[in-house]
C-alpha cells in the first residue's frame, strides 16, 4: 500500500494502468490493494473518458493526511542510508531542507527518548499502522521513485510494524514480543532476525534493543500512530497516549524545516527529480 501511495503523491499516478506499469505487480493484486484503499476512504474514484469511460483514483482528505508519513520516511532514509535521494525544497524559504520531527504544541525537536506512552486497557498493536499491509519482494530500484527497501522492510507487513511498535513501548525479550503480539514463534524469529540485519535492533544478552538507527524511526512511528488513531475507528480504551516530556502535551507531530524552522506543509514543498 505504501508503494501505491508513494506514487500517488510523488509521481501523481492516478490510474490502474499507471500503478500496474510502475509497480510491475499482477492486476489481481493491484485490484485488491486499491479496493482496500477505497474501502478505508484513502482513495475515491472519479470517472474520466479515454475512448470509453474509465475511472481514476484520487486521494481523499484522509489519504492526503498521509503525506507527512511519507516525508518522514524520506527523511529517515536520507539520514540513515547511502542511497541517492532527490533534494526536498521548502518553497517558503527556498532552501533544501532535512525535515525533522517536532512537537506541534511547543515546536521543540522531539525523539523517542522525549516521550512516554500510556496504553488504554484495550489497546492492541493492530491499530498501529495502515490498513492491511502485505510483505512482498521489491524490485531492484532504490531511488525514492522506486521507493526505499529499508523502510519497506520495517513497515512491510502487519507483523513487522507490530514488532517495531512493541519495541518502542518497551518489549525487549523474545517472550515479551510473543506475549504482547500473539505471534507465531517462526514469524517472530524471522522479523527479529531481519531487524537485527537492518541495524534497527541490536541483540545484547537476550534483549533486542533499538539502535540509534531504530530509535530514529520514531519520526515515522509518530505519524503512523497519530494517523491511525485519528482515522481508523476503534472502541474506547484502545488508544495509545503518547506524551511529550518537555511540554506535557499529547503527541501532535509536525515536520519542521532545518533551514527556517517553519512547518513543512504539503503544498509548500517539492522534490527535485
Automatic annotation (TrEMBL):
It holds the Pfam family HxlR. InterPro entries: HTH_HxlR, WH-like_DNA-bd_sf, WH_DNA-bd_sf. Keywords: DNA-binding, Transcription, Transcription regulation. Residues 1-85, 145-236 form the HTH hxlR-type domain. GO terms for molecular function: DNA binding. Gene3D superfamilies: Winged helix-like DNA-binding domain superfamily/Winged helix DNA-binding domain (1.10.10.10). This is HxlR family transcriptional regulator.
Amino acid at each position: 500500500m505504501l508503494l501505491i501511495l508513494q506514487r500517488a503523491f510523488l509521481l501523481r499516478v492516478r490510474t490502474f494502468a499507471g500503478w500496474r506499469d510502475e509497480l510491475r505487480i499482477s492486476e489481481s493484486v493491484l485490484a485488491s490493494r486499491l479496493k482496500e484503499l477505497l474501502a478505508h476512504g484513502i482513495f475515491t474514484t472519479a470517472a474520466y473518458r479515454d475512448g470509453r469511460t474509465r475511472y481514476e483514483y484520487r486521494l481523499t482528505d484522509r489519504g492526503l493526511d498521509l503525506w507527512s508519513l511519507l516525508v518522514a520516511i524520506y527523511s529517515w532514509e536520507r539520514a540513515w542510508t547511502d542511497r541517492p535521494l532527490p533534494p526536498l525544497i521548502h518553497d517558503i524559504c527556498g532552501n533544501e531542507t532535512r525535515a525533522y520531527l517536532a512537537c506541534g504544541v511547543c515546536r521543540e525537536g522531539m525523539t523517542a527518548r522525549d516521550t512516554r506512552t500510556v496504553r488504554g486497557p484495550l489497546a492492541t498493536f493492530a491499530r498501529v499502522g495502515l490498513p492491511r499491509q502485505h510483505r512482498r519482494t521489491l524490485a531492484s530500484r532504490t531511488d525514492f521513485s522506486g521507493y526505499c527497501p529499508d523502510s519497506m522492510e520495517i513497515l512491510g507487513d502487519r507483523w513487522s510494524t507490530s514488532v517495531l511498535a512493541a519495541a518502542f513501548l518497551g518489549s525487549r525479550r523474545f517472550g515479551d514480543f510473543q506475549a504482547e503480539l500473539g505471534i507465531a514463534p517462526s514469524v517472530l524469529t524471522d522479523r527479529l532476525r531481519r531487524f537485527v540485519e537492518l541495524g534497527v535492533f541490536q541483540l545484547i544478552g537476550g534483549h533486542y534493543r533499538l539502535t540509534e538507527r531504530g530509535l530514529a524511526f520514531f519520526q515515522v512511528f509518530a505519524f503512523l500512530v497519530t494517523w491511525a488513531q485519528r482515522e481508523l475507528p476503534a472502541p474506547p480504551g484502545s488508544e495509545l497516549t503518547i506524551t511529550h516530556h518537555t511540554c506535557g502535551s499529547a503527541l501532535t507531530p509536525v515536520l519542521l524545516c532545518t533551514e527556517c524552522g517553519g512547518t513543512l506543509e504539503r503544498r509548500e514543498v517539492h522534490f527535485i527529480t
